[in-house]
Design goal:
The protein has 384 residues and is mainly alpha-helical. It has 15 helices and 8 strands. Helix content is 50%, strand content 11%.
């Protein structure tokens, strides 16, 4: 009898076509007599495209009923944001991501999401609360792209909570307002041929071989640090890209397009064969092993070897990705077509490839002079 009465108080769900609706009784009191009142109400919860099961519709219904009578909602479905992050989301979902992604998501969750919603339940994080959160992040000085990433993580967390049976709201990002990009994005660092030559010439092994691969192929640093000698097909002048490395561990590649056989020039083949003669053997047969036997960490190489080398040479600061930008620019300068460069960089979208091309002062002056000469000759002929 009690269970039946409770179901009645929580309201009844109905699926009419593709729309979930809720009928419930709103209890109150007459303002004049003080006598209890009871009004029948019906609301549309959403469609089956967003509420795909009765359980999901029930959770959405509980949010409405709780506003009328909070004590009616099952206490087991209510959980605070911080508690859900630490007990469920970080250990059982974020922990399954790649090391780099895991570190970024954990930082976002603990530095921004947990403090902002401290003491609040999951179901209280609706679009209004999310908009306030966005304003708070903007006030803290975060750029628009980072704010979007943090809010995207918040949205995924709430959706995971709903899937696990907790009372939570799903955010509609289309109704949220994000800060406009107010700063001019600096052009990505791009090593010129001359800079790359100086870096390679001044480096000692194994760093010289590492920088030669980066400059000659445009590979990502994680792909180079994961190379094994079995991936070096010297007979066909190719490097077989089959795995990546991050934070000293081997992992899968960035995307399906990353897996490829990359053509390498004869000069790099000779350089790698010379390097192999002095290479330190290791159990994993890696080209660039750490003292413990696994792949080197990119952060350590950058901090302790690459950055000091650039400073000593008087070359402006740049990361390993500057070799990739330089490689793309040099390919275009050599006359390679955009589709060819896209394939060599293994981009899924050619628009990404076009962001990797950079021009020099000499390129712009030559193009300007060519136009000026063409227009000048026309002007002279017209005057004659």
């Amino acid at each position: 009898m009690k269970a039946r009465r409770r179901r009645s108080q929580l309201g009844s769900l109905r699926l009419e076509g593709a729309t979930w609706s809720l009928r419930y009784r709103e209890l109150g009191a007459d303002p004049e007599t003080g006598r209890p009142t009871r009004r029948e109400r019906e609301v549309k919860l959403g469609t089956t495209s967003t509420l795909r099961s009765r359980a999901a519709a029930r959770r959405a219904a509980d949010l409405i009923v709780e506003r009328v009578s909070p004590a009616l909602v099952t206490r087991g479905t209510r959980l605070e944001v911080r508690e859900y992050l630490e007990r469920r989301y970080l250990p059982f979902r974020v922990a399954l991501a790649k090391p780099g992604t895991r570190a970024v998501f954990a930082s976002y969750a603990r530095k921004w999401i947990a403090p902002a919603f401290s003491g609040r339940f999951l179901h209280e994080v609706d679009n209004g609360a999310a908009q306030e959160f966005i304003a708070r992040l903007a006030g803290a000085g975060l750029v628009s792209s980072t704010i979007r990433s943090v809010v995207a993580l918040l949205k995924r967390m709430l959706e995971a909570a709903i899937a696990e049976g907790y009372a939570a709201s799903s955010l509609d990002k289309r109704s949220l307002t994000f800060p406009a990009v107010s700063t001019v994005q600096a052009a990505p660092r791009c090593f010129t041929i001359e800079e790359s030559r100086r870096i390679i010439a001044a480096a000692e092994q194994p760093w010289r071989a590492l920088y030669q691969i980066l400059a000659a192929t445009g590979l990502r640093i994680g792909e180079v640090l994961a190379l094994e000698w079995r991936h070096c097909d010297f007979a066909n002048r190719r490097l077989l890209i089959r795995q990546g490395a991050a934070r000293g561990r081997l992992q899968t590649l960035k995307s399906k397009n990353s897996r490829a056989d990359v053509e390498i020039p004869e000069q790099l083949v000779e350089a790698l064969q010379l390097y192999r003669a002095v290479h330190r053997a290791n159990a994993e047969n890696l080209l660039f092993p750490s003292p413990r036997g696994g792949p080197l960490g990119a952060d350590g190489v950058r901090s302790y070897h690459f950055a000091p080398l650039l400073k000593r040479l008087g070359i402006a600061h740049g990361g390993f990705h500057a070799f990739r930008h330089g490689h793309a620019t040099n390919l275009f300068a050599a006359g390679a077509s955009a589709p060819t460069v896209r394939q060599m960089l293994r981009h899924g979208d050619i628009r990404t490839t076009l962001r990797y091309t950079h021009t020099t002062d000499a390129d712009r002056r030559a193009a300007s002079d060519a136009i000026g000469q063409a227009l000048g000759s026309v002007s002279i002929e017209a005057q004659k």
